[in-house]
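Example with several molecule types.
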Amino acid sequence: MKSLFSRIAPPALILILGLAAWEVAVRAGQVPVYILPGPMVIAQTLVRDWTTLYPSLLVTVLITLGALAAATVLGVLIAVLFAQSKWIELSFFPYAVILQVTPIVAIAPLIIIWVRDTATALLICAWIVSFFPIVSNTTLGLNSTDHNLLNLLELYGASRRQVFWYLRLPSALPYFLGGLRISGGLALIGAVVAEFVAGSGGIQSGLAYRILESGYQLNIPRMFAALFMITGTGILIFVVLTLVNHFALRRWHESAVRREG
Amino acid sequence: MREAPALVALRGVDKVYSTGVEALRGLDLTIREGEFVSLLGPSGCGKSTVLRLIAGLGELTRGTIEWSDHAASSARRDIGFVFQDATLMPWATVSNNIYLPLRVRGVTRAEATPRIERAMEQVGLAGFGGAYPRELSGGMRMRVSIARALVAEPKILLMDEPFAALDEITRFRLNDDLLELWAGQRWTVVFVTHSVFESVYLSTRILVMSGRPGRVTAEVPVAVPSPREPSFRTSNSYAEQCRTVSTRLAEAMQA
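Resulting structure tokens for the full complex:
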């Protein structure tokens, strides 16, 4: 695939140049490591502290994926419920919006107090942040079915269930996948923010806790190493969801089909 | 002329949309078995509304639709509908699109396959079963749409300006193919169009409609050579009948 190379090479080159410039600047300016460590130092820290950081990464990733899975399942179910009747949608949609617009930092302490198990509390926080794009996009998709196709099925005497499975669900797929891609990033953000609020989470401590801890200890290289791991996880989630999107839609949806030049 | 038995009749039909638009007033028309009837009129004269009402999509405000006795019970399920745009499911292959009406009726894929194949052959789509709609030209998509209507073996085929968006060359070919299919199958066709030439070329009878509110203002039987051939398109008889219909249409638009 030629296009894959042409899509990866330019940003990769920018990354290498950027890291090199960073390294040179830090060395030339003799910036102390507790202000801004260079990429080399960060990489060394990453390797040296791997035994501490890796379990934390697992904690954060598990919460993120758990929240994303819950957001997908519940988000789609809620959207399907909304699509059943305009009244249900009108009655409940505002509450989905309220949940979405309330900053998670503001409600996370409450959730952590209410839910005894920290991991569950973090999961709930990350879920609240990430479920909305799936709900709103999937609802939109379910309501965007071609009216003539709906007429056609009515003409053939199709049941509500048939209309749903044969028409509405497949037409909602591109919208759902678009929402999922946004939710993937949000789940990670939600997980990290909730961890920050939770602070010392006992034995199970995620990457955000490592960042806090490194901050207290002025261990800036480790802070950066944890930050890189979070960013890397986010990029990975995005790439995976983009691939899912591509393979699900490549034969039929305009967004995924390559234009002939 | 020997009159075939009526298949469906609309009597004194009014249709007012919820927006208050009066689409039809006092519309009377009868469609006979085996006819190819064109509804001809300017845009917005309610042609498509008539088609939708025959299809059972939407309620009448006043009046009745009567199906002939033997058609009545199964009429709704014996209707094929072709829209102006092909209205295909973009996520499904050509053969799965054609499968749709059978799928709704609970026919298994294995049972349906020979029927799908036959419908594709009829419209000249053999070998395209695995293609997706977006990979096809407009004319080919319309063929898929027609095959989907045919696969359910309808008694009556309702076509709502099916070729209006196609280029002339494609339209002529589809006209000829449609006539050939009709000659072979003898279902009843109700064809909505705003093209005088298309209506004369295809139909056995033309109902000229005028708008606001929609009603039938003239009825023109078409004298057709048998068998109908593409050469009809350039014959004197064709030109003369087009002139007659054009005059009726002009009158309708002034009425």
